Structure formats: structure tokens, C-alpha cells
């Protein structure tokens, strides 16, 4: 027999991409999911392949020094009986000189970029030919894969959906911010693989790192560390929280992960400036979804940052409600992290499912700024000893807050204040633009027997008493929404629940604030020395907060913190109430003109009214949407936008992908920043 000569081959990127749900990554390369067969076609010249005469075998290799014992190299012959626990190849059909072969990885294979080599031999003669590279991803559709997720709608939302909503604002005014995850956009997959190859564990021991890439727990930990740059590890984002972002992008201005990841690659893996928690979480979510791990961004309102691990956050206020004696412990208005879905064979049964991963650099874990994966179930049950970093996240949703009022003589008096930490934990609903509340997955109902058991297990014998004073009750209410550019009213609502007259001093103070708990200058104040409450009486005391007082010091986060301190003269008791008021930006209006169809021009008319009493200068609109616009479109307005005037422009774009898509818009100017808007557009296929 003459030698078998391979003439051409076809990796069938299109067909395999459709079957493996990776077609949106483009057909320039073969991208497949582990444990699922993919088909390639071989064309021989001279004579066709003959079974029993010719032997065909394949070599797959990943990483710089592949070896069989560590799972980064496999050599396997074409066989009739594939073995599911290892790589296999089976002849599917033969048509003259063409041969279709189905290849399949085990569902526990290492993910990453592989090279594929074909070895042909007839008798003793053999040749070897490199027939291309492919990328192998985790497979949430395969029942044996450790990231398997049963529900198809959830798989679509958490692996395939390239756009979503991230919840911000305050507990009393939860706002959805649109985000373009864009995990299948051009070049994002190769950037995610580069991120894995830039991580210090890879640089220390390349073979060991590549051999552990079959494990989503390991990958999650690497991604959590690499999305921030705090370890001099060439991480993706630099964090900044001080409102000075002139040498980079304000964290509020981003509307997607694609721009951030592309900048990181373009500038030689230098950290991109700047991120805050939702940006870190969103970029980590993009990387995890891109690699095939089901992931979502979650937001915890009133999130505790407990630096000393005692599960108590101490805050110190003066008698006028000003913060004194700053402790490192903080309460963030909200904090975002990622949950990724995976099995935990490294732990006892019962901890599979959602795992919390937090890429925002806060505390070190095993010497590195990363956090997780922590089983959400373990956080709920108070199993603090399990891997990884459960005490820190347990504190974020459960710590007690104690407010101390520092008297003039320096003595401290504990105020009466009800529980605030870990409220309204939120994520986007599956298949809908609505909010799903997942607080119950992190904690038992407050005050329940089960909650007390968890606290005892977490080595907290008791929770500090939530003393609701039977006598006096204090709340802060907002009359209507607070709009940027306008004055607004807040009310201290005081209830005397006793049968005695009470005489009190009431301090009401408003200050600008950042979402991470940092306080700015005062922008409103009232001090009433003589508030008399008859038995069972309710009093409402208003405080008007003026735009002219807050406009200069409002941070990019748009928060004003209102503190009310009620001191009863007879007993000396102090009752405290705190409320974070979110100052609402104007609405961005988006009108779509034309019939939304693939590869047909559409026009978006985008506008915003300036609500402020001053002109807006240096106005910029940024627009992007996976499958709609090619990358980010930027429009700089030449003229200032006068008060109550409209900033407006028209954008031409040509949708490239069908289905439900989001067009995302961000508006920036000198006085109004980080204004977001989006519009859902359903793109019909070409007839």
C-alpha cells in the first residue's frame, strides 16, 4: 500500500461553533466545550483511508510543557469504542477520499488553547501533521462537568447572555445599571486566556498551573486575583475611591467589560484606570462566562467591611452627628461581587452550587488580594472554617453595627440602632430585566431560631442586642425622589410610644458621601434643642437640602447621607437613624427609528435634558451594544448644553446579530457624570 497522504482538512468551525454554543465568538477559530464531541473532516490525496490498513491517531497538547501525567497532553488512536474518561476519536463517515472524525475530550479536561496533530501510519511508515489549534471551555450542558447547570434558561442567562443589569443606588432606592459583558466579542477569549497565562501561579510553575485548569475552583481563585492589580501581578484594573480620576476613566463612566479588557491587552497588561466594586465584579463575570462557568453579579446593600474579624463594626459620631475617630471598619452603601456555579468536590457534600467570588481588593487571602470561591450555603450556615474566605463574606452580610456617640468630655455612649447590614441582596432575574432578591440564600430570617443557631456556630455566642427602644422611635423619610439639580426634603419621624411626655434634642445633618462609606462636607443641618413629645405622639421634623449647598461636593456616586440623633434629656438615651439618599440623574431617552433587522441600517435618537441651573460643558455620549454597534461609539458635543436644554444626537448602526439586544448609553460632562440609559431592541433575521 502507498502511504496515506493528508492533503487538506477542515475543522468545521461554523458547525462545531453552533453545536457547542460558541458561534458568537466568530468562526476564525475552533472553540468547543469539554465532554461534547466535535467533528473534523480530513481529505486524503492518492488513495482513501482504509480501515485495518491505515492507523490514525491524534495528539492534543496544552500549555508550554505538556505531559500526559498532568492531563495537559493526550495521545489517542481512532477507535470504535470511545472511553468517556479520556480523549477519544471515532470515524463518523467516509465519502471517497474524505473522512469525518468525531473527537471528544473527557468532561474533566483542562480548559485552554490546544494544538491538534494527526499521525497517520501504514505499515511501518508514519507521518505527523499539525492540523490546527482549538480552545476548550467548561461545559454547563454536560451532566458530569463540575459546572453543570440543569435549567436551560439559567444556562442562557449565566453563560451565553452578553448583557445584563447590575444593581446600584441605595437600599431605599435600588437602581439597575446596564452592563455589556461582551464575553463573545472579538478577541475577548484570547484576552481571557492571556489573563490565565499572566497570573503569578503560571509564571511560578507553568506545568502545575496548566494541569489545574480543569478545576473551576482554581480558575475562579485565579480570576478573582487577576482582575485587580494590588499584588503587582499585572492585573486588569486599578481601584480608586477618592473622586480623583483625571488620569484615567471614572469608574462610573464604564458601560461594559470589553473596552476594559481590550485596553489591558493593548497597553501591555498595564492596569486600566479606574475600577470600583461593580466594575471589578462585572469584568470577573465576563471572564468566567467566557471560559464557560455560569456566573452572575450580585449586590449586597449595607455591606460591612470588617477588618479585624470581630464581626462588629464600630462607628463613632460627635453629638452633632459628625464622624470622629475613623475606624478602618466601614459600611458600604452597596458592594458587588460575583457568584459562579460549580461543584465543590474538595469539600464535604452539600456545598455545590453558587460560590461567592470577590475580585475587589479588600483583604488578603493566602497572601494575595483575592476572595473565594466561598459556597453561599456555607455563608448561610455559618461554616466559617471551610475554603475559601467565608468569615470575610459572612461579616459582609451579618456584622453588627454599633454607633458610639462621643460626648464633649470624651466619654462614649452607645446609641440605640436597629440592624442594617446585608439587606436586599440582588441580582438580575433570569430572562427578564427585573430584580431577583437572593438575601434568603445568604442568611436565615432575622430574629429566627435558625439565625441564632448559625451565630452560635460562627463562634458568636449572641448577637449584640437589637435594642429597639420601647420609648422613642426614630426614622428618616424622604418626601419624594431626590433629583439632581433640585432641592429636596427629608423628615425625621419621631414616635413617643410611652404614656409620658418626653423632651429631647434633635440633630439632623446631611453630608455628601461616597458609596464606600466615606463622608464629605455638610450640606444641610438642623439643631432643635427643645422637641416636646406628648404621650403616643408622632412628630415629623423636615430638613430641606438645597442644591446650591450640595452641588459642589456631590461625588460621582450621587449619595447624601442623612444622620438624625435624638437625645432624651431625662435618661440621656440616644436614638440614631441613618439614611443614604441617592440623587437621581436625568433620564436618557433612546428612540429607535427604522425596522430592526440584521445587516440593515438603524438610527438611534439619543437625548437628555440638562436639569441643572448651570450649563454642561465637555459633553460626551458613549454608546455600545453587543451585536448592534461595532465596538464603542463616542460622540462629543461641540457646544455646551444650557440649563433645561436638550443634549441630542443621532447614531447610525447596523445590527450584526439577531434576537434581543441592549443598546447601552453613558453620558459624561463636567457637572453631570455617569448617567446611564439603555433600550432593548429585538433584531429580526434577514428574510
TrEMBL record:
UniProt GO molecular function: GTP binding; metal ion binding; peptidase activity; protein-glutamine gamma-glutamyltransferase activity; protein-glutamine glutaminase activity
Cofactor binding notes: Binds 1 Ca(2+) ion per subunit.
Catalytic reaction annotation: L-glutaminyl-[protein] + dopamine = 5-dopaminyl-L-glutamyl-[protein] + NH4(+); L-glutaminyl-[protein] + L-lysyl-[protein] = [protein]-L-lysyl-N(6)-5-L-glutamyl-[protein] + NH4(+); L-glutaminyl-[protein] + serotonin = 5-serotonyl-L-glutamyl-[protein] + NH4(+); L-glutaminyl-[protein] + histamine = 5-histaminyl-L-glutamyl-[protein] + NH4(+)
UniProt cross-references to Pfam families, sorted A to Z: Transglut_C (PF00927), Transglut_core (PF01841), Transglut_N (PF00868)
Biological process terms in GO annotation: proteolysis
UniProt keyword Transport, yes or no: no
GO cellular component, one term: chromosome
Sites where the protein binds Ca(2+): 398, 400, 446, 451
Principal subcellular localization: membrane
Cofactor (UniProt): Ca(2+)
Keywords: Acyltransferase, Calcium, Cell membrane, Chromosome, Cytoplasm, Extracellular matrix, GTP-binding, Hydrolase, Membrane, Metal-binding, Mitochondrion, Nucleotide-binding, Nucleus, Protease, Secreted, Transferase
Active site: 277, 335, 358
Domain Transglutaminase-like: 269-361
Entry's localization field: Cell membrane; Chromosome; Cytoplasm, Cytosol; Mitochondrion
Domain of life of the organism encoding this protein: Eukaryota
EC number(s) per entry: 2.3.2.13, 3.5.1.44
UniProt key word Transferase: yes
Family: Belongs to the transglutaminase superfamily. Transglutaminase family.
Protein name as catalogued: Protein-glutamine gamma-glutamyltransferase 2
Organism: Sula dactylatra
Phylogenetic placement of the source organism: Eukaryota, Metazoa, Chordata, Craniata, Vertebrata
Underlying gene: Tgl2
Amino acid at each position: 500500500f502507498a502511504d496515506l497522504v493528508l492533503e487538506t482538512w477542515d475543522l468545521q468551525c461554523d458547525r462545531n461553533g453552533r453545536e457547542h454554543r460558541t458561534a458568537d465568538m466568530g468562526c476564525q477559530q475552533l472553540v468547543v466545550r469539554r465532554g461534547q464531541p466535535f467533528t473534523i473532516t480530513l481529505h486524503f490525496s492518492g488513495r482513501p483511508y482504509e480501515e485495518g490498513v491505515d492507523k490514525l491517531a491524534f495528539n492534543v497538547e496544552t500549555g508550554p510543557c505538556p505531559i500526559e501525567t498532568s492531563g495537559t497532553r493526550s495521545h489517542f488512536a481512532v477507535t470504535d469504542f470511545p472511553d468517556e474518561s479520556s480523549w477519544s476519536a471515532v470515524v463518523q463517515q467516509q465519502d471517497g477520499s474524505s473522512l469525518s472524525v468525531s473527537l471528544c475530550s473527557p468532561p474533566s479536561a483542562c480548559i485552554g488553547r490546544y494544538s491538534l496533530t494527526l499521525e497517520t501510519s501504514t505499515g511501518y511508515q508514519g507521518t505527523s501533521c499539525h492540523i490546527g489549534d482549538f480552545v476548550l471551555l467548561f461545559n454547563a450542558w454536560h451532566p458530569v462537568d463540575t459546572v453543570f447547570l440543569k435549567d436551560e434558561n439559567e444556562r442562557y442567562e449565566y453563560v451565553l447572555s452578553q448583557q445584563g443589569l447590575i444593581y446600584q443606588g441605595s437600599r431605599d432606592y435600588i437602581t439597575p445599571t446596564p452592563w455589556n459583558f461582551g464575553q463573545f466579542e472579538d478577541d475577548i477569549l484570547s484576552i481571557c486566556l492571556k489573563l490565565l497565562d499572566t497570573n503569578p501561579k503560571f509564571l511560578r510553575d507553568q506545568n502545575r498551573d496548566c494541569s489545574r485548569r480543569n478545576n473551576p475552583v482554581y480558575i475562579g481563585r485565579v480570576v478573582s486575583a487577576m482582575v485587580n492589580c494590588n499584588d503587582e501581578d499585572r492585573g486588569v484594573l486599578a481601584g480608586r475611591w477618592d473622586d480623583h480620576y483625571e488620569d484615567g476613566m471614572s469608574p462610573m463612566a464604564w458601560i461594559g467589560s470589553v473596552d476594559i479588557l481590550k485596553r489591558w491587552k493593548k497597553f501591555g497588561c498595564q492596569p486600566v484606570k479606574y475600577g470600583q466594586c461593580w466594575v471589578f465584579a462585572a469584568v470577573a463575570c465576563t471572564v468566567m462566562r467566557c471560559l464557560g462557568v455560569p456566573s452572575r453579579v450580585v449586590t449586597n446593600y449595607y455591606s460591612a467591611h470588617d477588618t479585624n474579624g470581630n464581626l462588629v463594626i464600630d462607628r463613632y459620631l460627635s453629638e452633632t452627628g459628625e464622624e470622629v475617630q475613623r475606624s478602618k471598619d466601614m459600611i458600604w452603601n452597596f458592594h458587588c461581587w460575583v457568584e459562579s456555579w460549580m461543584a465543590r468536590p474538595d469539600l464535604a457534600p452539600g456545598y455545590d452550587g453558587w460560590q461567592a467570588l470577590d475580585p475587589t481588593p479588600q483583604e488578603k487571602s493566602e497572601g494575595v488580594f483575592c476572595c473565594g470561591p466561598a459556597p453561599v450555603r456555607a455563608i448561610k450556615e455559618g461554616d466559617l472554617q471551610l475554603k475559601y474566605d467565608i468569615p470575610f463574606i459572612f461579616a459582609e452580610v451579618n456584622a453588627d453595627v454599633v454607633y458610639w456617640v462621643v460626648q464633649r468630655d470624651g466619654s462614649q455612649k452607645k446609641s440605640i440602632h436597629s440592624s442594617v447590614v446585608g439587606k436586599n441582596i440582588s441580582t438580575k432575574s433570569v430572562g427578564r430585566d427585573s430584580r431577583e432578591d437572593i438575601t434568603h440564600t445568604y442568611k436565615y430570617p432575622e430574629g429566627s431560631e435558625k439565625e441564632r443557631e448559625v451565630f452560635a456556630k460562627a463562634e458568636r455566642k449572641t448577637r449584640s442586642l437589637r435594642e429597639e427602644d420601647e420609648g422613642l422611635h426614630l426614622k428618616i423619610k424622604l418626601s419624594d425622589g431626590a433629583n439632581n439639580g433640585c432641592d429636596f426634603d427629608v423628615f425625621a419621624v419621631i414616635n413617643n410610644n410611652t404614656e409620658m411626655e418626653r423632651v429631647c434634642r434633635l440633630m439632623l445633618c446631611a453630608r455628601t458621601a461616597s458609596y464606600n462609606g466615606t463622608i464629605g462636607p455638610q450640606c444641610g443641618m438642623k439643631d432643635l434643642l427643645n422637641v416636646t413629645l406628648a404621650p403616643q405622639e408622632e412628630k415629623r421634623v423636615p430638613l430641606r437640602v438645597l442644591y446650591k449647598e450640595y452641588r459642589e461636593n456631590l461625588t460621582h456616586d450621587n449619595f447624601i447621607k442623612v444622620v438624625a440623633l435624638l437625645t432624651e434629656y431625662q435618661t440621656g438615651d440616644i436614638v440614631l437613624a441613618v439614611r443614604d439618599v441617592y440623587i437621581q440623574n436625568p433620564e436618557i431617552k433612546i428612540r429607535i427609528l427604522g425596522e430592526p433587522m440584521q445587516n440593515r441600517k438603524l438610527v438611534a435618537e439619543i437625548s437628555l435634558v440638562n436639569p441643572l441651573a448651570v450649563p454642561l460643558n465637555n459633553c460626551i455620549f458613549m454608546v455600545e451594544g453587543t451585536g448592534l454597534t461595532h465596538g464603542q461609539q463616542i460622540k462629543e458635543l461641540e457646544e455646551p448644553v444650557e440649563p433645561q436644554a436638550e443634549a441630542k444626537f443621532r447614531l447610525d448602526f447596523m445590527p450584526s446579530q439577531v434576537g434581543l439586544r441592549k443598546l447601552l448609553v453613558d453620558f459624561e460632562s463636567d457637572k453631570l457624570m455617569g448617567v446611564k440609559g439603555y433600550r432593548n431592541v429585538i433584531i429580526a433575521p434577514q428574510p
